[in-house]
């Protein structure tokens, strides 16, 4: 049997430490979780997380890195080659699918979001930048939809992207607070349907435009 290299062993221990951190933070938040607890939960010494990451802030950054990588992978699957309104809807679904497939990761991330406003302000710039990136993703697809005539020409892209992201985060925050009260699968379908109605209200289909013109 081939012996693993020191680099492999280190990478595995880092993965286990980050995984343990996600599970503990999902249960009691980052403020209620110590580096020592994370080390024990990962199956190592109490001091290994400090040795590897130095500070709790650095470990929380690694947790955000892990959850963001998982989301981007989910996004690539759900959006694929779609564009325009179809991509807007797929991007919405990706946010909720992340919670359905990796509940601990999304719950931990949302608790970190909340704590960045209170007990962990050093994380706030990164959390704000992440939100801006998500919003710009919606703006990009809404711009495609506007060019394709799928939404009105006077659609305020930034405003609608903000509303969409706000609705998603509102539902997911409710789920974090009381998981039993929120059916994420039903909420996903309802959110997508609501966004489609709001974005396509007043849009005339290409075929109907031609008929309307001939009747004039």
Shape: elongated
Number of strands: 0
Unreliable segments (pLDDT under 50, ≥5 consecutive)? 209-216
**Secondary structure category:** mainly alpha
The helix content is over 70%
Secondary structure: elements and pairs:
Blueprint: H1 6-28, H2 35-41, H3 48-53, H4 56-79, H5 84-101, H6 103-115, H7 124-147, H8 157-177, H9 184-200, H10 206-215
Features:
single chain, 216 residues, mainly alpha, Tetracycline Repressor, domain 2, elongated
Please characterize this protein's 3D structure:
The radius of gyration is 21 Å and the shape is elongated. The chain contains ten helices and no strands. The chain has a domain of 147 residues: Tetracycline Repressor, domain 2 (Orthogonal Bundle). With 216 residues, the protein is mostly helical. Helices cover 75% and strands 0% of the residues. The termini are far apart.
Summarize the structure.
The chain has ten helices and no strands.
């Amino acid at each position: 049997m081939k012996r693993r290299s020191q680099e492999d062993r280190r990478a595995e221990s880092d993965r286990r430490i980050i995984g343990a951190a996600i599970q503990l933070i999902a249960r009691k938040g980052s403020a209620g979780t110590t580096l020592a607890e994370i080390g024990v939960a990962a199956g190592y010494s109490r001091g290994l997380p400090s040795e590897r990451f130095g500070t709790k802030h650095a470990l929380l950054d690694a947790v955000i890195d892990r959850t963001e990588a998982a989301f981007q992978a989910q996004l690539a699957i759900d959006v694929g080659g779609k564009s325009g309104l179809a991509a807007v809807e797929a991007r919405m679904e990706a946010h909720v699918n992340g919670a359905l497939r990796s509940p601990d990761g999304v719950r931990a991330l949302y608790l970190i979001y909340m704590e960045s406003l209170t007990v962990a302000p050093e994380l706030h710039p990164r959390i704000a930048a992440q939100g801006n990136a998500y919003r710009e993703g919606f703006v990009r697809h809404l711009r495609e939809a506007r060019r394709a005539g799928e939404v009105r020409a006077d659609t305020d892209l930034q405003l609608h992207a903000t509303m969409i992201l706000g609705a998603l985060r509102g539902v997911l925050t409710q789920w974090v607070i009381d998981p039993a009260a929120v059916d994420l699968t039903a909420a996903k379908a309802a959110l997508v349907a609501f966004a489609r109605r709001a974005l396509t209200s007043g849009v005339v289909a290409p075929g109907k435009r031609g008929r309307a013109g001939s009747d004039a």
